[in-house]
Amino acid sequence: MLWSKTFIPTLKEVPQEAESISHRLLLRAGMVRMLMAGAYSYLPLGLKVLWKIENIVREEMDSCGAAEVLLPALQPLEFWQRSGRDKDIGEVMFKFIDRRGRKVCLGPTHEEIITELVKNHISSYKQLPLILYQIQTKFRDELRPRFGLIRACEFIMKDAYSFDAEDSGLDNNYQAMYEAYLRIFRRCGLDILTPEADSGVMGGKVSHEFMVPAKDGEDLVLVCEKCKNAKAYNDELESSCLKCQGKLEKVSAIEVGHIFKLGTKYSVSMGANFLDANGKLQPIIMGCYGIGVSRLISAVIEENHDKDGIIWPKELAPYNVIIIALDTTDKNIMDLASKVYKDLQGSKIDLLFDDRDERAGVKFKDADLLGIPLQLIIGKGALKDGSLELKNRITQEKIIKPSAEILEEIKRCVNG
Length: 416
Known about the structure:
Elements: H1 21-28, E1 32-36, E2 39-42, H2 44-63, E3 67-68, E4 74-76, H3 77-83, H4 85-88, E5 94-97, E6 103-106, H5 111-119, E7 130-139, E8 154-164, H6 167-187, E9 206-213, E10 219-224, E11 230-232, E12 248-263, H7 265-270, E13 273-275, E14 281-283, E15 285-292, H8 293-303, E16 305-306, E17 309-310, E18 321-325, H9 331-346, E19 351-354, H10 360-370, E20 374-378, H11 380-385, E21 387-392, E22 398-402, H12 403-415
Parallel strand pairs: 3-7, 18-19, 18-20
Antiparallel strand pairs: 1-2, 4-6, 5-6, 7-8, 8-15, 9-12, 10-11, 10-12, 12-15, 13-14, 16-17, 20-21, 21-22
Helix pairs in contact: 1-8, 2-6, 2-8
């Protein structure tokens, strides 16, 4: 992609509304723009990162045998009244009455809706287990949306639901999801804490949170300095780890995932039953597994940045390589840069060509700000001896080698 043909409105100054590191960098790097508090437009670079996270999530969910669906954002309020959660989280729901007089809400989550779907199609233990998931926009009327994508009113979430005939089946699916989540976050370049947590209004007796340590995180986690075991923070602060007696440290964190053993909370209230092997009617046993997909963008930046900008992990970077032509008024430099651009495109490498008529200093600063892993710099030196300069954004290492060797190094870094 040519920079001149896409939309990357970078900013030199930090916007006043930016409250956290990730929020500042997302705005400065031209990845998102705020329409109103809690609602954001994803610009081309931000959307590419979002898609890459979604693809990782899909790959890992599919590997667990989960099938993807897409449920409506518009939901009849009566389903929430059946489960009783209209009272539990009613304050954060966007509710209205449509022109036919029906009470409707925009879905803050989908437990009731997925249960209603499954109950109409599952009648026998022979149809279980089943895992369904979706990647969908959720809506919550946050009193104080803040930190950009970390706490928004409109956000993208992956929610998965398991349906089993026995508790042992739920245990197996819960463990499979737990392990899949660790793989997802590892692929996103994140260090994760996994404390047991309160199930809250979701219901069930067992749940785990997946937390990313972050200076501007809204949650607190207790972490053992010795064994790194984590547990949810509460007001009755414990002084030592129950596993190794090490000292507990209070750490700010961002919740990026939460999984629950729901049991029969929703199947009983919604009438989702099946016939067991003895012909007896039983409530379906459920689990719920959520990931804040759009929130992950901010969490990754919180863990992967420096004073100059974002440092994207390889799997999430909007582009693998940025080509920086230092002097666009020099036809020879531009011809060489265009040739390199076409050669790398032919190798199916996702790359951005900074063809703007800007000073070299501006291009270097923007390249660091965007955080693309590899920067290929083409200047007058390339015309003299055919050498190219390659900078690794993550390690800051620079190498200057003949053009052919540099191109092979790029292919090795991207595909290796």
